[in-house]
Input
Amino acid sequence: MDATQWDERYRASAGGVWATQPPAVVREIAAALAPGAAIDVATGDGRTAVWLAERGWRCTGVDFSEAGLALAAARPGGDAVTWVHADVHEWEPAAPIDLVVSCYLHLADSAAAVARIAEWVAPGGTLLVIGHDVENIAAGGHGPSDPAILYTPELLRGALDDRFRVERCERIVRTSADAELRDGHAAAAIDTLLHAVRVR
Output
């Protein structure tokens, strides 16, 4: 989907597309980190960025959908986030970042996109990426059905160089209790998680 299609989807939604909370594993990992500067890549309607800001992070939410960002800014707590209308292929921060998060960003060049946002991470900082795994198609979970844009642990691990220490890179099962969509979903879904720390 391009920016125009996402704008239409957000405008048609009642208060937002995604669940009000970030994925459980994102909350778990980020909650253990000392707050600093954070970027939520492809923030959508802002759930992860607002959650981080509420916990003391100086957070920037970046997305190419103006309609999504309008919903994000209107969220309770949305005024604590800096919202940026930009394409992940072109935009970059002015300084290295302590935490870069990407939830469900699926592109034709996903590995290159992950490698690009990894460059934004400061030494000692954290990169956290989660998205639909290719096995999610057979499992019947919500999400894209094109395997070319879906993740695998091998794809995400291969996007990093030796400046990063991989803490976790694995398939995880997201249950209906950890909804991705605002109205939930009936079945479990399979995601790929990458949690890495830049060591130099």
